[in-house]
Queue: 4 jobs
Job 1
Amino acid sequence: MSKVHVQTKINGEEVEFLCEPRQSLLEVLRETLGFTGTKEGCNDGNCGACSAIVDGSLINSCLMLAVEAQGKAITTVEGLAGPEGLHPLQRKFLEHASLQCGICTPGFLVASKALLDQNPNPTEHQVRHWLAGNLCRCTGYDKIVRAVLDAAQTLRAGV
Ligand code: FES
Ligand code: FES
């Protein structure tokens, strides 16, 4: 099958790749480009493990075709930490012990970043509602929600 040339930006860097028209963004991120922080769980839009931010919107990368990334800006979990270290969300997930096996964690981090980018001061209800598309089989969610609220406070304080 002939491949399609796609130009995109991932975590602030210009990235070009070739993909088949049938390939999902998740498949290309992981298997072509090596962004293995983005996880494959259900591969049908139900678990949120493959969450990415595309042009400011939270998406399930298993449901997006890689060719649709043409001209778009993508953020994966690898783009959260900066030169100054871990993103506050990552620090707070560690401090609150918000992960166990960790398979869901990149998706929760990316989804939470998308929330805080849009709403820097969410209520607990808004956090729970926003993260309803991300499934975790280990933590029971409370520690994740506490970490997101704590990270939001930290970001608002500019720490
Ligand atoms: S792998 Fe995409 S939603 Fe589960
Ligand atoms: S930490 Fe194991 S599924 Fe969430």
Note: The first helix runs from residue 25 to 32.
Job 2
Amino acid sequence: MILKAQNIKMEFERKRKDTNILEVLNEFNLEVPEGKLLLIMGESGKGKTTILNIISGLLNPTEGNVFLDETDIYSLNDKELSKLRSENFGMVPQGQTLLRSLNVLDNILLPIKLYRNPSDDDIKRAKDLIDEMGITDLIDVMPSEMSGGELRRAAIARALINNPKILFADEPTSDLDSKNRNMIIDIFKAQRDKGVSVVMVTHDDSLKDIADILINLNEEA
Ligand SMILES: Nc1ncnc2c1ncn2[C@@H]1O[C@H](COP(=O)(O)OP(=O)(O)OP(=O)(O)O)[C@@H](O)[C@H]1O
Ligand SMILES: [Mg+2]
């Protein structure tokens, strides 16, 4: 599946003395081809999270369109868009986003539980992902008892539970030591090699070598 963002403008209303409008993106275009790792680099405040939210169906831009193949995703109603998102997209959000009241297995099954009771197959898939992420021993552990790298790997498993065609990740290596950082990068590369399109945003210059396609927001005006 091909994801395209066309002529995106994003303005936020923000109370300031001189102006009430903050323009974060203007004439922004992006194409995410199948099975590639696309890296969007930019300093803090350049709009990386905003871009991920727009192209993953969470934030309707002020102007412009986002197409998944032929579908203009913001022309869908809420229910249709949620269905498209859960069938095609996985998201690893910025920061720690596991629910503190659920253990690792239940956190990973959460995207399924929003729609139905997990089947035996769903639970098996969750356990396989837990193994793949190298956190087998943590299956029934609560997030408060886990390290930053472990939390990040559990969040990736949660993003993968519905077999997404496109995996979005917002600063997935921030606050990690180099060992954990490499582990996370290897996980994303392995997904890419399985044919999943990966869209990652980061302010970390040292990640640029892992990209199949690099978009540098710092170079734009
Ligand atoms: N809902 C909002 N309302 C008003 N301003 C916003 C909103 N969301 C983001 N912004 C502003 O838009 C700009 C871009 O924000 P964004 O979160 O996309 O940056 P970022 O590149 O992800 O930064 P970081 O690296 O710190 O995560 C910032 O100046 C931010 O303050
Ligand atoms: Mg951000």
Note: The chain has a mean pLDDT of 95.
Job 3
Amino acid sequence: MRELNLIKPGHVGWVERPDPVLADPGDALVRPFVASRCDGDALPLHLDGLKHRAMQAAMMSGAIDPAVADIIGKDPFAGPFGIGHEAIAQVTAVGEAVTDMRVGDIVVVPWAVSCGTCYECRLGLTAKCSTFVPTSPGRTLSCFGFGPTSGAWGGVISDTLRIPFADHMLVRVPDGVDPLRVASAGDNLTDAWRGVAPTRAQRPCARVHVLGGGAQSIGLYAAGLAVLLGAERVDYFDDRDTRLEIAEGFGATVHRIDRSRRKSAMPRIAERYDIAVEASSTGQGLRDALRTLRPGGICTGNGYYLGANTLLPVMDMYATSATLQVGVSHVRPHLPEMLDFIARTGFEAERVTSLLADWDDAVDAYPAHTTKVVLHRDPLDLT
Ligand SMILES: [Zn+2]
Ligand SMILES: [Zn+2]
């Protein structure tokens, strides 16, 4: 079968590899037909040779936090490996122990592999499922699209994926919801949901602050979801007109900021927020977002903070009883509620898609310098 690979940093190409097969009775095989680009994939896709060597040097010198090597290996993005981990797929085969999923079902594929019954899964920490992420050193993730350090699951821009514990892992796209609308539900869209929806549910008058940028689509999804979740106020800050326009289209109040200065890019504003979504992927963004919180406010850092010893305003957080949540997204537990919300409200998540491309054009489209790439092809007729 054909799979899009990161050949080396900055280069993708199609690679032939054997089709996965049903290996366990609880497995399903699925055929992705919508795939979208996680904001994090822009990092390896846009690393040229010079930047890659600079990144390797920074990892060697300790300027990049050693935890990064634990997550993605000491020579990250070396390639070749199947890239891509956000997909909507069609079930094409099920093992004999699968009782819920059926051939032909249209499903969201969560980016991380999980069993649904271990201690971590029962806590909702499905991206840290201990059935697939042993506590031994050398692996912190088990997922699609991150290369051999995260298991041999392959990338989702491929013809077949093997899904273990399929009845648990896969979640059907609700009837009437366009798969293109929820293309990113396997990771970024649901990551945005977890930063906004749980806190909004506890605070009827919640005010929301979103700092956009590095995690481009997550910040925009968060702004749009916050508006539709009925937040009292949603302020979106960014320096890029294309993203500001999308946020404004969602109904957020947008603010253009200047990131050319070294210090905080945030304007002095009197507003304080219950929820802050830090999607700029910068330490300064984290500090800015934390300092905007109301008493008891919660900031979610959705970006990568690669630098060693990222500074945080801890006394400021103490003074406001602030909470900072960071970490990989645990998509599976949130999917049913989020998909139901989108089915009920018609949230137009596809507004964030800045490049909708044909599957066969993935080599040109997937690395494009744009906010959100979505690839698509026709599903099979399995009736
Ligand atoms: Zn991702
Ligand atoms: Zn588990």
Note: The mean pLDDT is 92.
Job 4
Amino acid sequence: MESLRWGVLGAARIAREQVIPAIRRSGCGDVVAVSSASGRGRSYAHELGILRSYDSHEDLLADPGVDAVYIALPNSLHAAWIMRSAQAGKHVLCEKPVVLGSAELDQVDAAVRAAGVHLAEAFMYRHHPQLATVRTLLGAGEVGDLVAMEARLHFSLPRTGTPDIRLRSDMGGGCLLDLGCYPVDLFGGLAGRDPDDVAAVAHRDGDGGVDTRTAATLRYGDVLATLDCSFDAPMVDTATLIGTEGTIRLPHVFRTDLVGGVGTVHVDREGRTREIEVPGDAYAEQVRAFTAAVTDRRAAGGEFELTRRTVGTLERIAQAAGLT
Ligand SMILES: NC(=O)c1ccc[n+]([C@@H]2O[C@H](COP(=O)([O-])OP(=O)(O)OC[C@H]3O[C@@H](n4cnc5c(N)ncnc54)[C@H](OP(=O)(O)O)[C@@H]3O)[C@@H](O)[C@H]2O)c1
């Protein structure tokens, strides 16, 4: 696997805290440029030791020394910047949710195909090895046939000061898109298909505000799935997979970085519990998988099909919950 020269679009918190350090840890990439439309590029580059900074994303895209870009802009800006990046010949890793709906995904897909570049959605949890352990256990029939899946993702989002982009409907905010996308992606990946039925409810902050608490029930063939998410509770990040012979419990499924990178897979069967610890570095693995897909032209293992399923399912949940 070769190395990629990365440009970062947006002087973003998540890029500073997770993705830039992960690119550097990955052993297959360096961050050479950052752009910030609000003029924070220079200080951000200085703070993080990035060589070049730009005040416009267009200027970064014109930099011939950038092979791939990481887009960490508000959700409502993802589609436009993916398309411009693709047209500039850059491979794209874009934050989740990659787009706001299927219509945008079709446009993005067409642009990426026309340019012959690679696009991946930054669902880092997909790359933590505990997911591979879960798939192996399910495949081996350790808990029998899957009957039901449950996943929850909650955290407390402060409501003081300037409204966070996650609380702005004009920026593609709301807890379903910000947090619910993870359980939906997990369910779609494990079920390997679109849901047949979708029901959902949501609570909004004020009139016309974004959803701040959302719950959904889905049916994938004979497997039932439930999720809830909110901006209103201390961190909850769990999944439970119930089978005809036992249960797999994941106390930390999406944000293993918050528990030192270690996933713990609990297998309950015949009155006994087996605990399997799986250390990993989800963000760095994400960078390695992306780089392999670009430099070795290695097939990305159905990643985009899963993204399409997740985008479509989120759209159906939003509709069922009266959010669209
Ligand atoms: N994978 C993960 O673990 C994870 C975690 C958190 C967030 N995320 C995702 O990462 C993305 C960014 O999240 P973040 O929390 O890092 O965001 P953030 O730091 O609040 O903002 C990211 C960038 O968005 C632009 N921006 C912010 N407010 C704006 C406004 N009002 N108008 C126009 N542009 C604005 C700014 O770009 P400029 O510098 O160009 O001005 C800013 O640097 C989102 O898509 C989010 O869903 C992923």
Note: The longest strand covers residues 211-220.
